[in-house]
Amino acid sequence: MGGDIRVTLISPGVTESELADSVSDEQSRQFMKEYCQIAIPASATARSIMYAIKQSVEVDANEIIVRPTASPN
After folding, report:
1. How many angstroms from the chain centroid is the CA of residue 58?
2. How confident is the model at residue 3, as a pLDDT?
3. Which residues pair with 64 in a beta bridge?
4. Cα–Cα distance measured from residue 64 to residue 44, given in angstroms and rounded to the nearest whole number
5. Domain range annotation of the chain
6. Which of 1, 32, 34, 56 places its Cα 20 to 30 Å from the Cα of 13?
7. What is the reported pLDDT for 20?
8. Which of 23, 14, 5 is nearest to 60 (CA)?
9. Is 3 left (phi over 0), alpha (psi -120 to 50) or beta?
10. What is the SS3 assignment for 60?
11. How far apart are alpha carbons 37 and 45 in whole angstroms?
12. What pLDDT, in 10s, does the model give residues 8-66?
């Protein structure tokens, strides 16, 4: 038994969303809007998930970090 379950940690960076619009503090909302200018589309994270899923049974993609190329971090 064993080997039937694979686990992958997907760590997405700043991703396009409506989060900045829902922040009630004006200063924080403005910071988020500026920060999100380098955001990647959610489809980029979806493609990384599909990459992990499509690996053969011999491959275990343990961790995938998805960051915008413009990110300073």
Report:
1. 25
2. 61
3. 10
4. 12
5. 9-66
6. 56
7. 79
8. 5
9. left
10. coil
11. 17
12. 999 999 999 888 788 899 998 888 888 888 999 999 999 999 999 999 988 989 999 99
